[in-house]
């Protein structure tokens, strides 16, 4: 349809170009009227095209944003591998694959949480704490909040900041009162044991993290 429209416009313009040199005053006035009609049609077409381009640009931006924020099949594979290594307690390999996913998809909360827990097992406390703080800042899932706050409490306990640790454990229990890991960790810190027995995230709670 568009090609036919342009073909017709070109034919009309060709006719004007051929007729104009030999046209008299009255004929040139008629040709000018025809030209104005074609010019108006052309302006309308250009304006409509620009509006269409604007909408196409909006869609492209939405599509690109979705591609950035939503894991696709290509990156679900390394996440599943990383999660599998985590369950096998092969935390170095788990961390490697999960870092790949988090780098590409910063909002993939489950990957970031398992990465933080892997790093805790590797005693990479500072980077684990960074990821956990991001998790609690963006997720609205009570269980994920509880797991992340409990893990943050464990890091503070390892640094012997028991008051801060207890605060994090209580925060975890605010989100999930039945969270046994947080209960156990809070009790251990309150008793002031020299050898703390900390639970980062038991298998039962690992299973509730969406994958």
Description:
This is Tetratricopeptide repeat protein. With 211 residues, the chain is mainly α. It has two domains: 2-69; 73-206, Tetratricopeptide repeat domain (Serine Threonine Protein Phosphatase 5, Tetratricopeptide repeat), CATH 1.25.40.10. 78% of the residues lie in helices and 0% in strands. It has ten helices and no strands. The mean pLDDT is 83.
Form type: rod-shaped
Distance between the termini: 48 Å
Rounded radius of gyration (Å): 33 Å
Oligomer: single chain
The domain count comes to 2
Q: Looking at CATH, which topology of the largest domain would you report?
A: Serine Threonine Protein Phosphatase 5, Tetratricopeptide repeat
Report the CATH superfamily of the largest domain. Answer: Tetratricopeptide repeat domain
Count the DSSP helices.
10
User: Which sheet architecture does the biggest sheet show?
Assistant: none
Which regions are unreliable across 5 or more consecutive residues at pLDDT < 50?
none
Key terms:
211 residues; 2 domains; single chain; mainly alpha
Give a summary of the structure in a few sentences.
This protein is mostly helical and 211 residues long. 78% of the residues lie in helices and 0% in strands.
SSE topology:
Layout: H1 2-19, H2 25-69, H3 73-87, H4 91-104, H5 109-121, H6 125-138, H7 142-158, H8 162-175, H9 180-190, H10 203-206
Helix pairs in contact: 1-2, 3-4, 3-5, 4-5, 5-6, 5-7, 6-7, 7-8, 7-9, 8-9
């Amino acid at each position: 349809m568009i090609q036919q429209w342009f073909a017709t416009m070109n034919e009309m313009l060709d006719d004007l170009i051929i007729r104009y040199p030999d046209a008299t005053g009255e004929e040139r006035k008629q040709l000018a009227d025809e030209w104005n009609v074609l010019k108006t049609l052309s302006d309308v077409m250009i304006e409509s095209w620009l509006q269409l381009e604007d909408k196409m640009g909006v869609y492209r931006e939405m599509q690109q944003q979705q591609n950035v924020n939503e894991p696709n099949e290509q990156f679900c594979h390394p996440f599943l591998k990383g999660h599998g290594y985590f369950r096998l307690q092969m935390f170095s390999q788990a961390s490697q694959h999960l870092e790949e996913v988090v780098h590409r998809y910063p909002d993939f909360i489950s990957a970031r949480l398992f990465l933080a827990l892997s790093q805790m097992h590797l005693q990479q406390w500072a980077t684990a704490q960074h990821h956990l703080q991001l998790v609690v800042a963006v997720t609205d899932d009570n269980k994920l909040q509880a797991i992340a706050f409990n893990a943050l409490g464990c890091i503070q306990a390892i640094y012997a900041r028991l008051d801060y640790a207890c605060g994090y454990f209580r925060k975890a229990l605010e989100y999930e009162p039945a969270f046994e890991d947080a209960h156990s960790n809070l009790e251990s810190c309150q008793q002031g044991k020299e050898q703390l027995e900390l639970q980062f995230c038991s298998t039962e709670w690992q299973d509730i993290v969406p994958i």
